[in-house]
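ARCHIVE CARD
CATEGORY: sequence design from structure
SOURCE FIELD: tokenized fold
FIELD CONTENT:
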């Protein structure tokens, strides 16, 4: 498997994989498919030098993707924290794709000046929670009963972990 920076030509496959998660229910809070055109601004907001989107290729096909997004964009005190998202094509699930994408993202964080990773996941998404816990993510927050999927109410978990040594910024604040 090859992991590389995504390019805009990959966007249709990224969207296809995301829409598979929408169809699955519980893997995302979206209830309807997204379009390539609707996701184009999201894609363009990701700078490969600071907040990349990666794709994994297996036998020449995109098997999954992972992105780092700004947490509370524009609030400079939070600039060293990023949100990680990842999705795997149905045909490639349970083959280690998610684990490799998460590991890759964690390893890249120091060079991206990211100290903390966090993710927001529905509390019914047990497979994702278990994978994240394997990588040292722990519960940083829980918003109970705020989502409704097919008539079932569930919560939103905030999971996070430090990924790089803390930088002492106190001298700059004095």
């Amino acid at each position: 498997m090859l992991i590389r920076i995504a390019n805009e030509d990959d966007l249709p496959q990224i969207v296809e994989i995301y829409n598979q998660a929408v169809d699955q229910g519980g893997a995302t809070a979206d209830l309807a498919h997204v379009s390539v055109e609707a996701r184009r601004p999201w894609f363009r907001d990701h700078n490969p030098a600071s907040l990349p989107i990666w794709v994994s290729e297996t036998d020449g096909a995109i098997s999954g993707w992972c992105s780092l997004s700004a947490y509370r964009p524009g609030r400079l005190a939070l600039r060293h924290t990023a949100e990680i998202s990842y999705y795997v094509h149905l045909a490639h699930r349970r083959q280690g794709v998610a684990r490799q994408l998460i590991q890759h993202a964690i390893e890249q964080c120091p060079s991206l000046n990211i100290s903390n990773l966090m993710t927001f996941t529905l509390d019914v998404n047990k497979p994702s929670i278990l994978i994240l816990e394997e990588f040292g993510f722990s519960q940083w927050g829980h918003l109970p009963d705020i989502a409704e999927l097919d008539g079932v109410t569930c919560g939103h978990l905030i999971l996070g972990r430090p990924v790089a040594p803390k930088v002492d910024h106190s001298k700059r604040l004095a």
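CARD ANNOTATION: The chain has one domain: 2-173. The CA atoms of residues 121 and 146 lie 12 Å apart.
SHELF: design records, drawer C
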